[in-house]
Every structure is written in C-alpha cells, then in structure tokens.
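Hey, quick one: can you model this chain's 3D structure?
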Amino acid sequence: MAVNLYDERDNVQARQELIPGSERWEEFYRVHPELKDVDMAQFNLPGGMDAGAQIDNKFFLSMVALLGELGHEKMVDGSVEQKKIDLSPERHTEKIKGMAGHLGVQLTIK
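Sure thing. Here's the predicted structure for all 110 residues.
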C-alpha cells in the first residue's frame, strides 16, 4: 500500500516558518503562486502569527472566557431538548464551510 505524503507547507501556519528567499520558500510559491499574496499579507503582520505572540494569547484568553460564560448553566433558560438532531457528515461540512465563509475564510477545497 502506497503512503501519501503530506506537505506540511499546505498548512498556512506551517508556512509562517518559511524564510523569505530560501530554497523551500521559492519552491513552494513556484508550485502555489496563488497563495503568495495572501500569505505575504499575513506574514507582514507585526507578530500576529508568531507562536506565543502576545496578541494571540489575548485573543485566545478572551475567547475561552466568553465560551466559559456562554456555556455556564445560568445561561440556559430552559430544559434540554430530548429529540436529538442527526446531521450527516455532508451537512456538517456544509454548515462549517458556510460559517467559515461568513467569517471571511477563502476556502480552496470544494
């Protein structure tokens, strides 16, 4: 059985580790020229994509705090619905892609 290798650079966060002008940088954007402008816009942000950047930590902590408040029992104003809603994997995918599009994500996978 053949093993399909995954190019880690297909992950946008992994591309932040590339060094502009390096051989790996040039190779990737030669194969994926459509990603260069979008990646450069993110790459040029002041520390926003660095691991452990202060701005990332603040965003993360604010999201966790908000989810903690919204998920608290005091926020529930009724009983739990007894009827479970079953969604197919295709419908889950459609809903997730719809939300991602709403948030401004440009999907490259159909």
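One thing worth noting: The mean pLDDT is 77.
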